[in-house]
Design a protein that fits this description.
RibonucZ/Hydroxyglut_hydro; WH-like_DNA-bd_sf; five-stranded mixed sheet; alpha/beta; about 20% strand; about 375 residues; seven-stranded mixed sheet; 12 helices; 14 strands; Metallo-beta-lactamase, Chain A
């Protein structure tokens, strides 16, 4: 959902964007990389942090882009021209979604001195290639991320967890999505996640709430956020007043908060709103480095906007269910005023169910499975 109050935010870099394969300095030792995505949301922001790790000077990369030839080629241009001749020392992934984790395996292999990328049909977790001598001669470039998202990525890269296939189609069908063409397309998306995340590094280093990382002589504190992914990690540097927010706080659009088939009674919206309130403890003049959109200031105002947005959507859902028993598919026109393609419809369905589940689990709605196999919600 587009932010109608975006003008209340401040963009210190204006409309300046880094070109694909280039990097833009946003603060001392912090560079902004922008990669393309094949969706309506057509880009992701990635970050380079000047670092020193285990006595070596180099860079930490935060988030990776999807696994594609175009993204690899863009990274190679960055490596050739924007690393000042220094190596990549580690990879941090904010969460498990494909645009954030897709090339983690390729990046860690490349900067550990092993062959770049898994072979076709690589086993879960990715097969290491190259001989033992070459591996031993190069320090390990490790993936760092939360345990919950790491292990979910390991499962999803070899299956269809919450991303498509038969289970997702059946789940959306139970919430009123009955269009045969849409359901057939969802069933056909069984390889949605593995296509963009073909392998996950076989080992990692765990990040969690409160951990402090020394990155280039600066302290970055981990904030664990919930709702968008199970254990999303944002990074805050107090000295530089910088927040790498990942997908938790975006300036132009609201973060997707979805229920998926593997946890059908989840309440991610409640968790997401609570996570936003915790980020309010950070200074309002923090420069927010989001995964989509442009760096901005006005963190507290944006948190207020997001909470207000979801409050309005909950009120809309409540009113619709009070008027007549409703299912998630029937609420899509209430929650989303624009025409949705299939990719957007799957996210919209997950978000509609998230709003219904918050009201149902909070005791404001009741849920009933009707004879047609569809859950409908009504006011108590």
């Amino acid at each position: 959902m587009a932010n109608a109050r975006e003008s209340e935010l401040h963009y210190p870099l204006g409309d300046t964007l880094p070109a694909s394969g280039d990097a833009l300095d946003v603060a001392p030792g912090v560079r902004w990389v922008r990669m393309g995505l094949p969706f309506a949301l057509d880009h992701i922001n990635l970050w380079l942090l000047r670092d020193r790790l285990d006595g070596r000077d180099g860079w930490t990369i935060v988030d990776c882009g999807i696994a594609s030839d175009d993204t690899r080629a863009a990274w190679e241009r960055v490596f050739a021209e924007r690393l000042d001749g220094l190596p990549v020392l580690r990879i941090i992934a904010t969460h498990f979604h494909p645009d954030h984790l897709g090339l983690a395996h390729w990046l860690t292999e490349r900067w550990s001195g092993r062959a770049a990328g898994p072979p076709a049909g690589a086993p879960l977790g990715g097969a290491r290639s190259g001989n033992a001598a070459s591996a031993a001669a190069n320090p390990e470039c490790r993936l760092w991320m939360s345990a919950t998202d790491y292990h979910l990525a390991r499962l999803a890269s070899g299956s269809t967890i919450g991303m498509g296939g038969m289970a997702a189609a059946a789940f959306f069908g139970s919430h009123g999505l009955t269009d045969p063409e849409a359901l057939d397309k969802i069933r056909a998306r069984a390889d949605y996640y593995p296509t963009m995340v073909p392998a996950v590094p076989a080992s990692y280093r765990r990040l969690m709430e409160g951990i402090e990382l020394d990155i280039g002589g600066r302290t970055w504190r981990c904030f664990a956020g919930h709702g968008h992914s199970p254990e999303h990690i944002s990074l805050f540097c107090d000295d530089a007043r910088l927040l790498i927010s990942g997908d938790m706080v975006l300036p132009r659009i609201s973060t997707n908060v979805s229920v998926v088939d593997v946890e059908p009674e989840a309440d991610p919206l409640r968790l997401y709103l609570a996570s936003l309130e915790r980020l309010r403890s950070l200074p309002d003049d923090t420069l927010v480095l989001p995964s989509h959109g442009k760096p901005f200031r006005g963190l507290h105002g944006r948190i207020d906007q997001l909470i207000e947005h979801h409050g309005e959507r909950l009120a809309d859902v409540m009113a619709a269910c009070a008027a007549a028993p409703s299912h998630a598919a029937g609420l899509l026109p209430v929650l989303f005023k624009r025409k949705l393609d299939l990719h957007q419809t799957t996210f919209a369905m997950g978000e509609a169910i998230a709003h219904l589940n918050t009201l149902w689990l909070g005791g404001r709605l009741q849920r009933q499975l009707d004879a047609d196999g569809i859950y409908r919600f009504s006011a108590r």
